[in-house]
């Protein structure tokens, strides 16, 4: 049987490069070893039987890309038991890092699961295990692949709290079309608010001009186009959809390559992973409540502070921001995943401030920036652009996609997982980590994941451009704990 590959999925199939593969990675950690035969049965029942794409390969038939049944499909080609040379955390990290550089066999379905036994548990004692799942982005977006991974698990507690919080925009069933309609309904009020804000700014202009230090005029005149966009649209309120949409799309269109810093360059083939784990979600929530911001704002502030300290320690804090691409799901998490999975997301740009050491100011600034993104039609607009690009030949779509990717340092995503303990094959999951792919010349990717009251951050880095992601992990770990006023550390691995 053959099924056409949707344009939104086909783009990612063409984006593979030897030095940046379009692979999404997820890791389940266990303090005890699940039964191998039961794990195999769960994968066969809950992945292969439920989602046909896991037994199909990507192929061209008469010039058209399709998913076709693999005539030689065998679970053994995709699921394997692995024993490492040693059982320490460093051995596990080396193994995971090496897998990031290994492409899939294109003659088979584009996924693999490695079941690694006899690795250290969360306390450093031998006898644990981990399950590393690798999926090609062409199969589905990160949110849906997280759901696929979680579909193999069983909650150890019942009730509504077992499900992860909704991810993605509530579109009222209309998807991107409904989002676009929502923008239209807000154009009139948005324009009034925007014009009113400009008028207010002009009224204050003489007083403002009198306060400008003449020595600062060259800097003001030489301000970049994105700064002009921010200044013009910044006079509108944070919930003004029209101004925020122009602000977001204008920044994406006018910004140049990612801010030059020590990690800029052409990525190599070798990758390196690190992670932060063991951060308590309630501590993060407490900080958010105290400052009137969200959990996501607090975690982004921790990343900002961590990067600031990382760069400052290398005398390389040469900019006041770093730009990230953030995936926004255009379909909220469904109770039952569609069988065809697929990609249903848009990428939006977040200019993350650096160098702000006052935690309240940093939290409020990030809260404001995220509010403007949330109260805009940027995801719907950019989804339309992505669809248009996807319809073009690879010779056109790949360079354009790389051009957009190179405006950022990488992908940063925050995924809420189950709120209660989960088990695979009857063995409780001790922790979950995720890593996002990088494209173009991006050197870095961060995946924030919450599970059972804990927060983890998976860091994927180019080994040549960011050779010490473990140090970055430690800086981020310390930054989040300092934000929360904590004295007990999380676990930064590298």
Biggest β-sheet: strands ordered side by side in the sheet? 5-6-7-2-14-13-8
Percentage beta strand: 15-25%
Instruction: Name the assembly state.
Output: single chain
Morphology:
globular
According to DSSP, the number of beta strands is 17
Which secondary-structure class do the elements indicate?
alpha+beta
How far is the N terminus from the C terminus?
44 Å
Q: Biggest sheet, open or closed, and with what strands and sense?
A: 7 strands, mixed
- Spans of at least 5 consecutive residues whose pLDDT stays below 50 are 166-224
* CATH topology-level name of the largest domain: Chloramphenicol Acetyltransferase
Radius of gyration, taken over Cα atoms and rounded to an integer in Å: 23 Å
Mean pLDDT score: 80
Structure annotation, total helices: 14
State the domain count.
Answer: 2
Q: What is the CATH superfamily classification of the largest domain?
A: Nonribosomal peptide synthetase, condensation domain
The CATH class assignment of the largest domain is: Alpha Beta
CATH architecture descriptor of the largest domain: 2-Layer Sandwich
The residue fraction in helices comes out at 25-40%
Overview of the molecule:
- The protein has 494 residues and is of the alpha+beta class.
- It folds into 2 domains: 2-157, 2-Layer Sandwich (Chloramphenicol Acetyltransferase); 271-416 and 440-493, 2-Layer Sandwich (Chloramphenicol Acetyltransferase).
- Helix content is 39%, strand content 23%.
- Helix 5 packs across helix 12 (378-390), helix 7 (225-233) runs antiparallel to helix 8 and helix 10 packs across helix 11.
- The longest helix has 36 residues, at 175-210.
């Amino acid at each position: 049987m053959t099924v056409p590959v949707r344009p939104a999925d086909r783009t990612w199939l063409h984006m593979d490069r030897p030095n940046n593969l379009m692979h999404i990675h997820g890791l389940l950690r266990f303090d005890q070893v699940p039964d191998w035969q039961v794990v195999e049965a769960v994968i066969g029942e809950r992945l292969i039987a439920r989602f046909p794409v896991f037994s199909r390969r990507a192929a061209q038939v008469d010039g058209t890309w399709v998913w076709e049944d693999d005539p030689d499909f065998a679970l053994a080609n995709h699921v394997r038991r692995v024993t490492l040379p040693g059982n320490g955390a460093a051995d596990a990290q080396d193994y995971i890092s090496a897998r990031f550089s290994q492409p899939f066999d294109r003659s088979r379905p584009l996924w693999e699961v490695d079941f690694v036994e006899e690795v250290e548990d969360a306390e450093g004692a031998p006898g644990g295990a981990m399950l590393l799942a690798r999926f090609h982005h062409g199969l589905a977006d990160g949110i849906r692949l997280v759901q696929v991974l979680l579909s193999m698990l069983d909650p150890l507690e019942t009730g509504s709290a077992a499900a992860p919080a909704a991810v993605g925009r509530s579109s009222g069933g209309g998807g991107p079309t409904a989002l676009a309609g929502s923008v239209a309904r807000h154009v009139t009020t948005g324009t009034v608010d925007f014009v009113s804000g400009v008028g207010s700014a002009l009224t204050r202009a003489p007083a403002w001009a009198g306060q400008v230090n003449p020595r600062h005029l060259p800097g003001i005149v030489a301000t970049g186009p994105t700064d002009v966009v921010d200044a013009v649209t910044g006079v509108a309120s944070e919930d003004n959809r029209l101004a925020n949409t122009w602000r977001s799309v204008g920044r994406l269109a006018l910004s140049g390559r990612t801010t030059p810093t020590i990690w800029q360059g052409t990525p190599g083939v070798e990758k390196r992973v690190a992670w932060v784990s063991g951060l308590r979600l309630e501590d993060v929530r407490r900080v958010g409540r105290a400052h009137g911001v969200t959990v996501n704002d607090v975690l982004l502030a921790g990343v900002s502070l961590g990067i600031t300290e990382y760069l400052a320690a290398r005398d390389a804090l040469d900019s006041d921001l770093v730009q990230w691409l953030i995936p926004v799901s255009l379909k909220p998490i469904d109770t039952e995943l569609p069988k065809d999975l697929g990609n249903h997301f848009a990428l939006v740009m977040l200019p993350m401030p650096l160098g702000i050491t006052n935690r309240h100011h940093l939290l409020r600034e990030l809260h404001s920036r995220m509010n403007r993104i949330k109260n805009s039609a940027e995801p719907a607009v950019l989804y339309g652009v992505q669809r248009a690009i996807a319809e073009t030949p690879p010779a056109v779509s790949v360079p354009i996609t790389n051009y957009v990717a190179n405006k950022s340092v990488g992908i940063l995503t925050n995924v809420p997982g189950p709120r209660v303990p989960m088990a695979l094959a009857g063995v409780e999951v001790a922790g979950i980590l995720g890593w996002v792919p990088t494209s173009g010349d991006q050197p870095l990717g961060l995946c924030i994941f919450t599970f059972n009251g804990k927060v983890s951050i998976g860091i994927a880095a180019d080994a040549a451009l960011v050779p010490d992601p473990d140090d970055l992990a430690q800086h981020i770990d310390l930054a989040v704990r300092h934000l929360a006023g904590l004295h007990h550390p999380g676990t930064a691995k590298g």
